[in-house]
Each structure stands twice: as structure tokens, then as C-alpha cells.
Amino acid sequence: MVSRVIPVDPFDLVIFGGTGDLARRKILPGLFRRFCAGQMGAESRIIGAARTDLNTQSYRDFAKDAVREFEPGGAKNAKHLKGFLELLDYVVVDAKGTQGWSDLTKAVRDDVIRAYYFSVGPSLFDDLAERLHKHKLDCPGCRIVVEKPFGHDLASAQELNQIIAKYFDEHQIYRIDHYLGKETVQNLMAIRFGNMLFEPLWNSQYIDHIQLTVAEEVGVGGRGEYYDRSGAMRDMLQNHLMQLLCLIAMEPPAKFNPDAVRDEKLKVIRALDEVAPDDVVRGQYEAAHDQAGFREQVGNPDSTTESFVAMRAHISNWRWAGTPFYLRTGKRLRERASEIAVVFKDAPHSIFDVEAGVHRNILTIKLQPNEGIELGVTIKEPGPGGMRLVDVPLDMTFAEALGPEEADFPDAYERLIMDVIRGNQTLFMRGDEVEAAWAWTDPIIAGWQERGEAPLPYASGSSGPDDALMLMHRDGRRWREIKA
Ligand code: NAP
């Protein structure tokens, strides 16, 4: 099968924070890949904007280094690299001052799609939005892209929404959650809503429980100060795991359009029950061998911030009443592995001599490090020896059937940026979704603070605190092993 790359219309993409880490590691290399794939042409412009005193040539050098470091294979194609760098421009702009704004006005064009990527800390959103307006750069068709963290609680998320809404309509705002840009996450929607096989079984009558795991092997690294203020709940669960939960649990939207999909996701968040204190386990990793522990890494010997959180959540609606959702995420765990596992119930009556709970269909959506979807089915173990059962995985990724070009799909950032240019908000969070997610998360965090609860220590390279295992054991269930 031949890969179908549909080119986007010419655009100007202004990257505020164009000299930052995100631009260097994700945005510029991602755009380069789309250029190589033929999705964006020579008429488009990428304009870096930041305070650092660079010019167009030195910004191109910066981008060349970024592409060579993070897209080394593609960067070997000198023609592609040269062509891509020619799209780049740079304007010195101070988001908080007056410098550079009239230069930016001259750098953008009126006759192409225009998007502003706010790849800066949220404290600058207000300044940027206000100055874009003041300099008449907030055209009705312009889009703005904002990064996580979108607030640190409900009040701050509401404030951010209000700030941006002063100058931009909701249809212009693209709140990025890069988990939604993953091929497999979208495939989950295709599998659920494009087939007859799954949806009739997709409810508490047939599904025993659902597990969501986002496990990281690394610690907080250089983000210690930020992470100590945030923690796993705010940094991962409120956004990434919540978005995955929504896609798994939502009702089929009437249409595949941005608002229909986001309306259904919002209903899931609003149907989440309050979480009881003993349904949540927090953990903090300890020092191991030559690796510093969490407190040392964040430079706060008294830190009570969690680097791990696990919980049992319930969705109170007709579809899910009685089906628990177990969520866990953490740093310095055994391996880097993220997956969603939909565990179906036992067949209602077994004609084979098998123990309950041993042979269950499990639909596994793997997100990291490799993406893929597998359905575990029970078959007869081949050969003589009677009717012995064995579970085998059916690979539903079908990379081989679709051919190598299809398997080489864009990474989440590049796909999402192309969606911004196309004006498709389906895979972006709407303001009310973000607020609803904080409204559910805030009381959990407030409860920890009121009770003065400290996180439980866990060994680096483990599966988290033992109490997290108990969270499932007490229900007669067990977590799947964390493995890549
Ligand atoms: P960073 O490395 O600290 O970069 C910040 C950028 O903002 C720099 O380009 C800086 O350039 C620019 N900047 C700061 N003050 C400015 C001002 N007054 N006017 C104009 N530009 C200004 O941060 P980052 O890691 O790239 O993160 C950017 C945003 O993405 C943050 O909100 C972060 O939370 C989010 N994010 C980052 C990652 C990641 O992997 N890095 C992942 C998810 C989300 P100058 O100093 O040259 O002005």
C-alpha cells in the first residue's frame, strides 16, 4: 500500500520560545520530518521568536544542530536539510516588552494560514496574547498552540482560559496533549467505532476492568524544581492518563468531528466518582546504587511530592457502573512502558477444565516504547495431549499488511502540528475538558494536604510501592507486569 501524505496549505508558524528545549527536541525535528515527507512545501515559513540575540542564519544553525541531534537519519539527506532550513526565519521578540513586535508584524504574511506556538512557560501566555492583539497580529483565522502544564489547579486553569479567551475564540485554541497525537491512540478510536466486533462488548457486562499504565524508567532529571511543585498527579495523571481514560470510556460520538468527540470525552470526566482516600496510593522513589533519590534530585530534603501515583477510579454511568479503572504512573520504575489493557470477563460457563480468571481476552494498546495493539485470544494448544488451552496474541497493528511506509508514521508532535495547520481540533483538549479534569483532581490533592499524607518510599527499578499492588490484590486482580 502506498503511503498517502496529504500536503497542507502554505503557512507561517511562529514559535515563541523557538530557542527552548521543546523547540529543539520536538518541534523543529518534527517539522523537518513533515518537510521530508512532502507534507509541507517551500512556501511555508517557520519563524523562531525569543529574546536571544540571533539572526536568521544563526537560527538556521541552531535548527540544523537540533535536527542532526534528534533526527540524525533524515539529516543525512543534505538536499532535504537545506530545503528545510530555508523555510526558517528568526525575530528577536520580548514577550514582556516592546522589542521585536513590529519586526514580527513584517515577518508574517496575510495570505497564508498563521499559527503561533506558545512554547514558553504559562506565565507568558497573558503577555503574548495581549501583545499579539495590540499589534493586530490576532487575525480571526490565526491559531494558537499552548503546551502543558495548563494550570496547576482548577482556579489557575480557569484563569488561563479567561486570559486567552480575551483575544482568541475557542476554535482558535489548540491545547496540546501529545498522547492524543499517538498513532495507536487514534487507532483505538478506529478499532472501537469502525468495527462491529468490539463495541457491543465494550461495557461493564463484558469487561472486568481496565488498567492504564504510564511507567517511566528515568527520574526527574533536570526538571527537579518544576516537578517538586507538580508531582505525578498534576504532571501525568490529570492530563495524559485522563485523556486516555476518556477515549477508552467515551460513548460513540455521533460524528467524527472535534466538538462531537470532545463532548463525549467531557461527559466521561464529569461521570467520574470522587476517589476515596484508600483508593489512591502515592509513592516517592528512593536512592539506588549510584542514583540519587527523589528528594536529593529535586533539592528538597523534606519534599512530600509524589513521583508515583496509582488509583482505582469509577465512572458512574450505564456503560461502566461496576467496572473499575486502575490507573498508575511513575518515574524510576522497572522499565519505560505505557499501555492500556482492557481485561474482559471469563466466559460465563467454562466447558474446559480451567481455573477462573486464567484465560481472559485482553485487548492491549501499547503506547511506549513501541506502539501497537494486540488482542489476546484463547486457543487449543497445538498437538496431541488433549484439550489444553493457551493464550496467543493477535497483532492488530497490521504494519506488515499495510506496508513499511504506513508503519513509519509521524510522531505525535508532528502530527498535531499538521492538525493545527489543517484547522482540526479533534485531538486537542477543549477548555471545559481541562477544567473538568482539574475539578476532579483538585479534591484528591487537597485531601492529601489536609491529612498531611507523605508518599510511600519505593525502590528505584521496582513497580512502585507495595500498597499499589494491594490496590488490585484486594479486588482479586493484579497489575500487568511493567515491561516494554
Ligand atoms: P525552555 O527550554 O525554558 O524555553 C523557554 C523559551 O521561552 C526559550 O526559547 C526562551 O528564549 C523563551 N522565553 C523566555 N522568556 C521570554 C520572553 N520574555 N520573551 C520571549 N521569549 C521568552 O522551556 P521548554 O522546555 O522549551 O518548554 C516550553 C513550554 O513547553 C513550557 O510551558 C513547558 O512546560 C512546555 N513543555 C515542554 C516540554 C519539553 O519536553 N521541554 C514538554 C512538554 C511541555 P529566550 O531565553 O531566548 O528568550
TrEMBL record:
Cross-referenced InterPro entries: G6P_DH, G6P_DH_AS, G6P_DH_C, G6P_DH_NAD-bd, NAD(P)-bd_dom_sf
Residues annotated for substrate binding in this entry: H178, K182, E216, D235, K331
Annotated Glucose-6-phosphate dehydrogenase NAD-binding domain residues: 14-187
Keyword Cell division: no
Residues binding NADP(+), per UniProt: G17, G18, T19, G20, D21, L22, A23, R24, R51, K148
EC annotation from Swiss-Prot or TrEMBL: 1.1.1.49
Family: Belongs to the glucose-6-phosphate dehydrogenase family.
Stated role: Catalyzes the oxidation of glucose 6-phosphate to 6-phosphogluconolactone.
Protein name according to UniProt: Glucose-6-phosphate 1-dehydrogenase
